[in-house]
Amino acid sequence: LELLAWLNDFVETDYSKIEACCDGIAYAQIIDAIHPGIVPLHKLDFNAKHKDDFIRNLRVLDRSLSKLKVPKSVPFNTLANGKFQSNMEFV
User: Does residue 7 contact residue 15 with C-beta atoms inside 8 Å?
Assistant: First the structure.
């Protein structure tokens, strides 16, 4: 719960559970806060409701991490499924 509280405070959201991060928005906002302008936020669907939309958001995040030369790739399908364990590990 502490991690979720920090996340909500940091990105000014109100996620009720870690699994909701599957939309990719919080992850992208964290990277954008650390490296302003690296994530094209205008390409994100802030109203994403379906797995395909989540995957598109997560791909935007993955491309941004690649620009930063982060060796870890974003596991799109795993995160987009909205499972607690995979999203908790990614956070």
Answer: yes
Three-class DSSP category at 45: coil
Q: How far apart are CA 76 and CA 73, in angstroms?
A: 9
**CA-CA distance, 15 to 3, in Å (whole number)?**
11
Residue type, 30: I
Return the pLDDT at 10. Answer: 94
The CB density around residue 59, as the number of other CB atoms within 10 Å, is 14
Rounded Cα–Cα distance for residues 38 and 36 (Å): 6
Query: What's the confidence (pLDDT) of residue 91?
Result: 87
Tens-place pLDDT, residues 37-83: 999 999 999 999 999 999 999 999 999 999 999 998 899 999 999 99
- Strand ranges (DSSP E) for the chain? none
